[in-house]
Write a structure and sequence with these properties.
The structure is a single chain. With 142 residues, this protein is of the alpha/beta class. The chain folds into two domains: 2-37, no CATH class; 58-140, Nucleotidyltransferase, domain 5, CATH 3.30.420.270. It contains five helices and seven strands; from the N terminus they run E-E-H-H-E-E-E-H-E-H-E-H. A hairpin with a 5-residue loop joins strand 3 (66-69) and strand 4 (75-77). Helix 3 packs across helix 4 (113-125). The protein is elongated and about 95 Å long.
Length: 142
């Protein structure tokens, strides 16, 4: 605290705000450094469409696993019907022998996001490391 002496009123104290400003500047710098390292959301893999002049690789298509959530609440793994309860164990069986644990999830337009998030959660629980998203534009090749 600083003090002003003199005059007929006696002593008058004035706050010294320089240390307060120093502390605030240090806090601002700390928050600026920490902010970029905070993860934002989930990492998403989006499959890239094949170029129009190149044909699709059949072995790659046979290895690709797509979990589809339909608008009537059904779940399918590569066009095979399954239930929500059987989805996790079936995915564990499929990926038991695979080194690359990558699968994709596709939801119909009328499906609520909560159902797609439920499928992603089950897939992650089954040991799938990377879950990609398939949209209508990607499926159409755009």
């Amino acid at each position: 605290m600083g003090m002003a002496v003199g005059g007929s009123k006696g002593s008058m104290s004035e706050p010294n705000i320089v240390p307060l400003i120093d502390v605030l500047l240090v806090l601002i710098i700390i928050f600026m450094v920490i902010t970029p390292t905070i993860p934002q959301g989930l990492d998403a893999l989006v499959p890239q469409p094949t170029p129009p002049n190149q044909k699709q690789d059949d072995t790659l298509l046979a290895k690709t696993i797509v979990v589809q959530v339909t608008s009537n609440g059904k779940v399918m793994i590569n066009q095979d019907d399954t239930t929500w309860d059987a989805l996790g164990p079936r995915l564990e069986d499929i990926f038991k022998q695979r080194a690359e644990k990558v699968a994709f999830v596709k939801g119909d337009d009328a499906v609520e996001f909560a159902q797609v998030a439920r499928a992603i959660d089950i897939m992650r629980g089954a040991g799938i490391d990377n879950v990609g998203l398939i949209t209508a534009k990607i499926e159409a090749g755009q």
